[in-house]
């Protein structure tokens, strides 16, 4: 029984985050190491371990970029903050081959 509980905890999605060529996904604070609103108006999202798998050039080698010119910028930023604060599963999809790893969309799972 002890091993079962250990495996359940170890394999639990609440401690899981991963990046793939076109996205990072995970739960709450595991998916994003930090959220950095900059003076340019863009929001920089620090990707978790495995960010080197993303098919884009990370801003400053660490960040995906949510541009303030995105048509639904405010809705996406709100979704990100909600997912992180409530520990929901979040997917951050990027524009492949983009400079600064531009965020295409985000998706929060209930």
Keywords:
110 residues; four-stranded antiparallel beta sheet; 21% helix; alpha+beta
Question: Summed up, what is this model?
Answer:
By secondary structure, the chain is of the alpha+beta class. The protein contains two helices and nine strands. The chain has helices spanning 2-10, 73-86, and strands at residues 17-20, 23-27, 34-37, 43-46, 57-58, 63-66, 89-94, 99-100, 103-109.
Q: Give the terminus-to-terminus CA distance.
A: 30 Å
Query: Which strand order does the major sheet show?
Result: 1-2-7-9
Structural class: alpha+beta
Helix and strand succession?
Answer: HEEEEEEHEEE
Q: State mean pLDDT (0 to 100 scale).
A: 89
CA-based shape: globular
Strand content: 25-35%
Distinct helical segment count:
2
Indicate the percent of residues in helices: 10-25%
Pick out the low-confidence regions: 4-10
Instruction: Count all strands and give the number.
Output: 9
